[in-house]
Structures are given as structure tokens and as C-alpha cells.
């Protein structure tokens, strides 16, 4: 059987919002995971439109498309194109699960929820010539997961080709998150076995890993055993976690010993009322500042996630949030305009209150206001969101944040990382478009390796014991980066 798997671009390359560095960072794993269930004799092509042009002039036996909300219209056009050629089309993913009736109009079969149970069932039925129009996931387990088909991933097109995901979902259920909508009708959080996760890591070539899990620390015994197992592997990695998991005694130390260097943390809002409104109780009453200090003491960079436009936010929220993030020395921040995804509790609430402005899914990208905020206009919300990005990554803010680090080398590293993403974006664009992205990998690894050495004395001691990769001790200097950077001197204005 000839199978074509397509991940349409979330934002197409012609759009002013397309940022090559964001979309070439690491390979998403949904389709490569599903490809693992195909037979050895099947011919499979996997195309990720974020990093390559699509070839739509073929006639496979089956086309499989992963649909996200902002890629939905594009995915439907591609699906219609293949169906007009008589090709069988299967659609799945978050958006299909949220709005099955809409997706059904463009597919022969649709899939609701994760695919580990439904996809093999479909393949059996398809080969037997009796596929059903809809499969709904109920049985949730990663226990007998075949190997992810990494051979189909064009590694050279991504900065960190070693993305991996060892769990699905999250133990929490925040109102604005897709999580409950996607996992409805079955378990909402489950992991691989520790052994399976460690074996997968061992198979990955190179040092740098990017965990795509929503909440890598969500199952404490699992995470703790995983980090124990990774301790001597000499890896450097990034992941996402909650404020509560950062503050939990013991777990972060283990993660750092296993190679954690940068953590995406969902702060979301500085307002307790907003947290209550969005049903994010696990952030309530937590000392965010202590969480940041703890990560920095351990030598872990912080990528803080913040959402604007919750009902408690007036137009002072932008300035307060950015000032707070800068003053706490957060290295990178991700700001979002609150976005009610169909299927979420937030969407239901907004819709019944008549606050949704339209259903142009391509604008549900957390960069546009698609609803009427309670205490400012939609225009002001978007303006404030854009201002927050500009202000956070202005030189004066980068240097102010860097100055909180208290040591020259720590300061330089802060500038290297914060400015490296945003200030050097035209350079990144050029590197990516000229397909040289893999050459930058050693530099990124060196910066990350360096971070672990600027934590608290205890963390420094442990991290010095750490970086032994493939029997070699990792270099402790970062000359390439140091030379590239301007000295961290404040500039007027
Ligand atoms: C990689 C990633 C990205 C990458 C690339 C995304 C891409 N090209 O796909 C980048 C960094 C670009 C990115 C950007 C954004 N992302 Co993102 N991202 C992810 C991440 C971390 C991993 C995806 C992944 O590989 N998962 C692992 C695989 C195994 O799971 P999966 O993809 O869901 O696939 C399974 C099922 O969906 C199903 N399935 C999928 N397709 C099909 C098809 C068929 C036929 C079948 C049978 C089954 C099936 O089966 C698969 C196996 O179970 C997810 C979080 C997560 N853990 O999933 C967020 C996530 C997808 N991102 C999210 C968001 C919000 C964003 C941003 C809007 C954030 C922002 N403000 O910038 C932007 C998008 C901006 C835009 N629209 O342009 C949300 C999506 C919410 C939603 N309702 O759409 C997620 C879920 C994170 C979260 N917890 O909120 N993201
Ligand atoms: S903690 Fe994060 S991933 Fe989990 S439900 Fe809340 S927003 Fe979603």
C-alpha cells in the first residue's frame, strides 16, 4: 500500500506570521508515530509543510492528514484535492476531534482523539476493504507502541531533530486548554513505561533532546525513574512543566542531573482571579518568583508562558507582566492572546455569552483576538500583546534581565539566549532557508551545556560530573558564542 502522510503548515510560508525558526525547531511526532503501525511492505512518504514544499501531484492509496485549528482550511483543501483524484482520505488530530461534523465533509474517514488504538483498527478494516467513516479513541495505552518512524523525518531540516514524547495529555484540566476536549471518553494522562522511554532515548543520535510532552513531570514516580535512568547518558534537554512541579522538592534536581537545561513554564497570569476563572488551581498560591529562583539556582533557563485577555485583565496587564518577567530574569517568554478553542470549556462559555467574534479558524492562533475581552477592546488586546513581545525583547529589557544574574558569565549567557532567538531572527531565517540549520546545532548545545554550570554551588558540582557523552567529557568553554556577542553593557534608550 502507498501511504502519504501530510502535516499542513499551521502558518503558510507566505504569511507575515511565518517564522522559520519557530517551525523548524523540532519535528512534530504525530504522523511519524502513526507510521510505526504500517507494515514493512507499505511505501510511506511523510511531508511536514513547515520545512518543505508539498508534492500534491501523486496518487497514493491512502492520504493521512493531521489537522490543527489554524491549518484546518488548508488541510481541507488538500483533502478535497486528493478526494477529487479518487484517493482515500483520512483526517485526524485536535481540530477533527473538536469539530467532527466540519471535518467529515472533507474526509472518507475521521478519527477522534489519540490514534494509538483507532489507527491500527482502521488499517485492519481498510486492508479488508471495509473502513468505517469514524473511529473514536477509547482505549488509552502506550504499552505496545511500535517504534516511531524517525527514518521518515528529514532530520537535517530541523534545529533539534531529537524531539520525543513519552506521555500523552496532562493530569490537569485548565479551561482554555485543548486537553479535555481531545482526551474525552478515556484516560487524559498516561505515560510509556520507563524502560521503553529510556530505550527510545538511547536510540537517538546526538546530545540535544526536546521533550514535547505537555507536562513531563505530571507523574512523579515515572518522571523520577526516567531521570534516574538518564543520569549518565550525557544528554541536554528542554521540556515543559508546571509551577507546582518546579517547586516540588527533589524532582528538579534529578531532572538537572539528567540534563535539563531549559524549561517552558506555564505561569499564564499573575492574577489569582484569572487562575480561578480558568480553573488552573494548581498555580494558585504558588510563589512564582521562588519557582524562577529555584530553576536559575539549578542552572535551568526559563521560558515563561503568559496569556493575555482573561476576564480580570485590563490594559495595565501588559506592562505589569513584562516588567515582572524582566525583573525576575526570565530568559525567554512566550505571550499568547487568550484563544477559545472549540471543544474547550472556555469556548462553551464564550459562545453562550455571545462573545465570539467569528469562526475564521486560521485566526485562532493566539496572535489575534477572536472574542470580546471583558475589560478592553479586541484591538487593544492585540496591540498590548504585540507591545509585550517588543518590550520583552528590547535590548534594554534583555540587558535588565541579564543584570539580575549576578555574574558576568551568567549575564552573557542570558543575553546569548534571549537575543539569540529574537535579535538574530533574520540570520536564522537565512540559515534555515539555505538549509544550513543543522550546522547551528553545536552552538546551541554549547550554550545549553554552559547554562548548567551557572547554578547554585551544589548544582554546579553535580553538573560538572554530568557531561560525559559517548565516553568523552563535554567541553566547558563556549568560545563561539562568547565571541559572537556584544559585551552586556546597557545602551542609552
Ligand atoms: C510540536 C508542537 C508545536 C510546533 C510544531 C507544530 C506542528 N507543526 O505540528 C510549534 C512550535 C510550531 C508549535 C506552535 C504552536 N503550538 Co504547538 N505544540 C506542539 C506539541 C508540543 C507537540 C506535537 C506533537 O508532536 N505531539 C506528539 C504526538 C504523538 O501527538 P499528536 O501530534 O497529538 O498526534 C496524535 C493524535 O493527535 C492523533 N492524530 C493526529 N493526526 C492524526 C491523523 C490520523 C489519521 C489519526 C488516525 C490520528 C491522528 O494521533 C497521534 C498519535 O496519538 C503540542 C503538545 C503535544 N504534546 O502534543 C503543542 C500544541 C499542538 N501546540 C499548541 C499551540 C497552542 C501552539 C501555538 C498556537 C502556540 C503559540 N501561541 O505560538 C503555536 C501555533 C501557532 C500557529 N497556529 O501558527 C496546542 C494546540 C492547541 C489546539 N487546540 O490547537 C498544543 C496541543 C499544546 C497545548 N497543550 O496547548 N507547536
Ligand atoms: S497544565 Fe498546561 S497542558 Fe495541563 S491542562 Fe493546564 S494548560 Fe493544559
Describe the overall structure.
39% of the residues lie in helices and 15% in strands. By secondary structure, it is an alpha/beta fold. It has two domains: 2-136, Cobalamin-binding domain (Rossmann fold); 159-403, Aldolase class I (TIM Barrel, Alpha-Beta Barrel). The strands form four sheets. The chain has a six-stranded parallel β-sheet with strand order 2-1-3-4-5-6, sandwiched between helices. A six-stranded parallel β-sheet has the order 7-10-11-12-13-14. β3, α3 (72-84) and β4 (88-92) form a beta-alpha-beta unit.
Map the helices and strands.
Blueprint: E1 2-7, H1 20-23, H2 30-35, E2 43-48, E3 62-66, H3 72-84, E4 88-92, H4 94-98, H5 100-104, E5 109-112, H6 118-127, E6 134-136, E7 163-164, E8 167-169, H7 179-183, E9 189-191, H8 194-203, E10 208-211, H9 220-230, E11 236-241, H10 243-247, H11 251-257, E12 260-268, H12 272-277, H13 288-297, E13 301-308, H14 317-327, E14 332-337, H15 345-352, H16 378-392, H17 395-403, H18 408-422, H19 425-433, H20 441-451, H21 457-465, E15 468-469, E16 472-473, H22 479-484
Parallel strand pairs: 1-2, 1-3, 3-4, 4-5, 5-6, 7-10, 10-11, 11-12, 12-13, 13-14
Antiparallel strand pairs: 8-9, 15-16
Helix pairs in contact: 8-9, 9-11, 14-16, 17-18
This protein binds cobalamin and iron/sulfur cluster.
Amino acid at each position: 500500500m502507498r501511504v502519504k502522510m501530510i502535516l499542513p503548515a499551521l502558518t503558510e510560508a507566505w504569511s507575515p506570521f511565518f517564522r522559520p525558526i519557530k517551525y523548524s525547531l523540532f519535528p512534530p511526532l504525530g504522523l511519524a508515530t502513526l507510521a510505526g503501525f504500517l507494515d514493512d511492505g507499505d511505501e510511506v512518504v511523510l511531508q511536514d509543510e513547515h520545512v518543505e514544499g508539498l508534492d500534491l501531484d501523486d496518487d497514493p492509496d491512502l492520504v493521512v492528514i493531521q489537522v490543527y485549528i489554524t491549518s484546518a482550511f488548508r488541510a481541507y483543501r488538500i483533502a478535497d484535492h486528493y478526494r477529487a483524484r479518487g484517493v482515500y482520505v483520512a483526517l485526524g488530530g485536535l481540530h477533527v476531534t473538536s469539530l467532527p461534523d466540519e471535518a467529515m465533509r472533507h474526509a472518507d474517514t475521521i478519527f477522534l482523539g489519540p490514534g494509538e488504538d483507532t489507527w491500527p483498527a482502521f488499517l485492519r478494516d481498510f486492508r479488508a476493504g471495509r473502513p468505517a467513516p469514524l473511529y473514536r479513541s477509547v482505549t488509552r495505552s502506550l504499552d505496545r507502541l511500535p517504534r516511531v518512524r524517525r527514518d521518515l523525518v528529514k532530520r537535517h531540516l530541523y534545529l533539534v531533530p531529537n524531539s520525543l514524547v513519552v506521555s500523552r495529555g496532562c493530569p490537569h484540566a485548565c479551561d482554555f486548554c485543548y486537553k479535555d476536549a481531545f482526551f474525552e471518553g478515556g484516560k487524559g494522562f498516561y505515560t510509556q513505561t520507563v524502560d521503553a522511554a529510556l530505550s527510545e532515548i538511547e536510540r537517538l543520535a546526538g546530545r540535544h533532546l526536546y521533550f514535547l510532552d505537555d507536562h513531563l513531570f505530571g507523574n512523579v514516580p515515572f518522571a523520577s525513574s526516567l531521570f534516574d535512568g538518564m543520569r549518565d547518558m550525557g544528554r541536554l534537554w528542554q521540556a515543559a512543566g508546571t509551577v507546582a512541579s518546579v517547586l516540588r522538592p527533589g524532582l528538579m534536581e534529578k531532572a538537572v542531573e539528567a540534563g535539563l537545561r531549559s524549561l517552558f513554564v506555564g505561569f499564564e497570569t499573575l492574577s489569582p482571579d484569572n487562575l480561578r476563572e480558568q480553573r488552573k488551581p494548581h498555580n494558585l498560591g504558588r510563589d512564582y518568583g521562588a519557582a524562577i529562583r529555584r530553576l536559575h539556582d539549578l542552572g535551568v533557563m526559563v521560558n515563561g508562558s503568559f496569556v493575555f485577555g482573561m476576564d480580570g485583565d485590563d490594559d495595565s496587564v501588559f506592562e505589569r507582566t513584562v516588567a515582572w518577567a524582566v525583573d525576575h530574569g526570565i530568559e525567554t517568554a512566550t505571550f499568547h492572546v487568550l484563544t477559545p478553542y472549540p471543544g474547550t470549556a472556555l469556548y462553551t462559555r464564550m459562545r453562550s455569552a455571545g462573545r465570539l467574534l467569528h469562526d475564521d479558524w486560521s485566526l485562532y492562533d493566539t496572535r489575534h483576538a477572536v472574542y470580546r475581552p471583558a475589560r478592553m477592546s479586541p484591538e487593544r488586546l492585540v496591540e498590548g500583546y504585540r507591545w509585550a513581545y517588543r518590550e520583552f525583547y528590547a535590548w534594554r529589557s534583555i540587558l535588565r534581565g541579564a543584570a539580575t544574574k549576578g555574574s558576568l558569565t551568567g549575564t552573557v549567557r542570558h543575553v546569548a539566549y534571549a537575543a539569540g532567538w529574537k535579535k538574530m531572527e533574520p540570520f536564522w531565517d537565512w540559515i534555515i532557508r539555505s538549509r544550513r540549520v543543522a550546522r547551528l546545532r553545536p552552538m546551541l548545545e554549547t550554550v545549553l551545556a554552559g547554562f548548567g554550570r551557572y547554578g547554585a554551588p551544589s548544582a554546579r558540582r553535580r553538573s560538572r560530573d554530568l557531561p560525559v557523552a559517548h565516553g568523552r567529557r563535554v567541553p566547558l568553554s563556549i568560545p563561539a558564542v562568547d565571541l559572537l556577542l556584544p559585551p552586556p553593557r546597557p545602551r542609552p534608550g
